[in-house]
Amino acid sequence: MTSVTAPPPPTPYLPQRGERYRLIAPNTPTAPRIARDFVGAVLRTTAHRGLADDARLCVSEVVSNAHCHTRSVRIRVDVTVNRRQVIVYVTDDEPGPLPKPGTDPHAERGRGLLIVDSLAGRWGTTTHGGGAPHAKTVWFVLVEPGA
Fold it and tell me: How far apart, in whole angstroms, are the C-alpha atoms of residue 129 and residue 122?
């Protein structure tokens, strides 16, 4: 059996008060579906049922990018929920840049980050490891209407 060392948890670069949930999935073609179902279940069982569809779509796009564009062994999905918002972090073991977002909304590829940008209140990326980065996180925030 191969030993795998997990990267450190994401640095708290956004306010993280609330309940926290984590999924660590192997980087396989089923990872986006598993992450989508995980995030949907968390939001349907907390007070964020109205954000579940947007969160499922966004996490699916970000995890798909990690699967398609990295050789990371695993993909970690962290979800923080509180009364006003949901923050989702998707971390892979490669610090390389994100794929460039496409410009054609009707194209078959390259729309994932455009979708995240249109649905999330905020989103961004963070690399981990200082001068020798060893991982990156794509995060997005969804806010309850009226919050």
Answer: 23
